[in-house]
């Protein structure tokens, strides 16, 4: 699976997600011990390479810096090996103590569609932004924007963490611009309020898997193979996924509105649905009678439940770059760890938020390995940082214009974006 292309389906959650990658640490804001000195050059390529920097203030508390290291274009056959670069890095720095604006995450018309980062920034009325989460992309022609991991928008958990040890998450409080970085866990259940019969919830807003051999049965309840239980919200798409299985539509109180032995329906505002496949179809019919209680918890690495509110936003990445000021990238040798375009998000020791893009796969900017990406994050003074979706997805938009150069020659449509809006967050 090559995560930087975003071309993988959502990974299954492994039980209670007890295993946590050793490369990530707890969420927190402890002081940094290894911040890079102000004005340090990027630790890329040969020592003594020419490096230029230009900065501009976009608005109060927000600056955009462009760094170019190396001067001569790389030979096309040496992009992955050259020590001469060049590298082009764009860095957006937000100072919460000085800005009047806020950071948020946004997606397009619905969660399952894709939009260009520039369009997401514009539609959000934002000043600037970068692409964010890994998303289904080509693995699903119908739902390409489906996040592969955490997705929190305006306090709503619309996609759960995968449980993959490689997943790293960034959660922002738009009211204070405080950021948490780490690996989150999630648990969910569905319980009948009268009988107390309980069923585990596997996913949120992700098409369930129909076990092979079950989709041709006359009745979905005849399937004896394991399936999925998924909650859908109106934000997912114009209609919920169709196919074999069972679907129960609930009103805002959690009471059953209608039940169907096939999947696929349109949800009204305030409604949710529960889809089940495989042998979970039988269990769903038993649980979803009368009213049900849906319980889920988003947990940090200490097991503490995160309290979401209207100003809560969260996205997913792959691998922690820095944890507590120290390099946290594991060893790896596949194409994901090789030189590619990269998007970085993180915070400095004093709470500044940094969003950065590194152009790659071009003779004018060769990109960075995962190790080089972590080194760049450290050189930018970050304390905690994650690797967001990259490759052809890497994009930074400022004031309605793309400021980096996508590797594919044109901007790719993506699942969501982190955006800076130049006004105070007014939601509750």
From TrEMBL:
Residues 1-35 form the signal peptide. One of its GO terms (molecular function) is hydrolase activity, acting on glycosyl bonds. Residues 246-420 form the Phosphodiester glycosidase domain. It holds the Pfam family NAGPA. InterPro entries: NAGPA. Coiled coil: none annotated. Keywords: Glycosidase, Hydrolase, Signal. This is Phosphodiester glycosidase family protein. It comes from Plantactinospora solaniradicis.
